[in-house]
Specification:
Blueprint lengths: L6 H5 L1 E3 L8 E7 L5 H17 L1 E7 L6 H13 L4 E4 L8 H9 L3 E5 L11 E4 L2 H16 L8 E5 L6 H14 L17 E6 L4 H14 L5 E4 L2 H13 L7 E6 L2 H8 L5 E4 L2 H18 L12 E2 L3 E3 L12 H7 L3
Parallel strand pairs: 2-3, 2-4, 4-5, 5-6, 6-12, 7-8, 7-9, 9-10, 10-11
Antiparallel strand pairs: 1-3, 11-13
Helix pairs in contact: 2-10, 5-6, 7-8, 9-11
Length: 337
């Protein structure tokens, strides 16, 4: 280590285990420790670590976008002798030098949910096909509107100004699924289709979703379709619409598939959501670190993809022709959080 570890790296520990000499040590670093998605991810990692005898230390940023805390956590994991790191990066490009440092030190680095930029900066990515997740809700929304899709007024509620890959993939997938021509598919906000009212950011939470929705409604009060990066943002958008009496005439779609989100689909708050499986991502990640520590085996990508695909399902109680989906009863069986 060429520089001292910062005290914040030690202060951010959410749950730390101490490995004995013959134990494999692993780290989980998430964007936050409050979002139900990351809570479930940690639970999945903890369960699999206990099963395999892996000592797990968990870290999280203070808020979504807290890049510096994640860098400090990586440094702590290197210094602590971890064999591998599971990472959901807040800044998918700026984190790469720290990841390279970890890999040079002999750690296996697995990106969970959010690919790094470039994706091969990590040894492997275990994730939902986030472009497909967005595409499914876009296809569903267009089909649900029918001929009126040509006259849609769309609000895009994204994650962060840094445009992490997970946010770009979901956004661009939705637009393509809806039938809108993309600009540069590696970023959002450069599309020219007049149906798009605009993009705003939510930080992936309810307060951010409400504020972003209010901002875009001020720009165009006739918005009738709302894409949201995740279900907490969708819940906030719904509250903003409810404040002006428009909660029943605007179509909201989202991604995550947490139990609260599935309940919101059932209750009509969200029209459809794409369900992903964070517990599986994390448990597979711990298995990969254990295999790496045992004999140097690295995980392999899903055939035809540059990541390990942990699956996605569209959840809605209003299925449309041509788009495969499951209902909220099945979604509840599979949900998390």
């Amino acid at each position: 280590m060429k520089r001292l570890l910062t005290s914040s790296a030690l202060a951010l520990t959410a749950l730390a285990g101490t490995a004995s000499a013959d134990e494999v040590a692993a780290c989980l670093i998430t964007k936050t420790d409050t979002n139900p998605f990351f809570v479930k991810m940690r639970e999945g990692a903890e369960a699999k670590a206990a099963e395999l005898g892996v000592s797990l230390s968990s870290y999280a940023g203070k808020v979504d976008g807290d890049h510096e805390t994640q860098v400090a956590a990586i440094e702590t994991c290197i210094a602590g002798g971890a064999k591998g790191i599971l990472l959901t990066a807040s800044d998918t490009s700026s984190i790469v030098p720290a990841v390279e440092q970890a890999r040079e030190a002999g750690l296996l680095v697995i990106a969970l949910d959010t690919p790094l930029e470039p994706i091969d900066s990590a040894d492997m990515t275990f994730a939902t096909d986030n472009f497909l997740a967005g595409e499914l809700i876009g296809q569903w929304a267009a089909a649900a509107l029918g001929d009126e899709a040509a006259n849609a007024r769309i609000a895009m509620l994204d994650l962060a100004v840094s445009q992490p890959t997970v946010g770009v993939l979901r956004d661009q997938g939705f637009l393509q699924g809806f039938g809108i021509d993309l600009g540069d598919p590696n970023k959002w906000g450069d599309e020219t289709d007049p149906r798009i009212v605009g993009n705003d950011i939510t930080a992936g939470n309810e307060e951010g979703g409400r504020k972003a929705m209010e901002n875009l409604l001020a720009k165009d009060p006739t918005i009738n379709v709302v894409y949201t990066i995740n279900e907490p943002a969708a819940a906030g958008a719904y509250e903003a619409l409810k404040d002006i009496g428009r909660e029943n005439d605007v179509l909201i779609v989202s991604v995550d598939g947490g139990c609260p989100g599935v309940d919101n689909v059932k209750d009509g708050v969200i029209g459809a959501t794409s369900q992903q499986y964070p517990l599986l991502m994390a448990s597979k990640g711990i298995e990969a670190i254990a295999a790496w520590a045992k004999d140097g085996t690295k995980p392999q990508a899903t055939d035809g993809k540059d990541f390990f695909d942990t699956g996605v399902s569209l959840v809605t109680d209003n299925p449309v022709e041509g788009v495969d989906s499951i209902d909220t009863a099945k979604g509840t069986e599979l949900c998390w959080g």
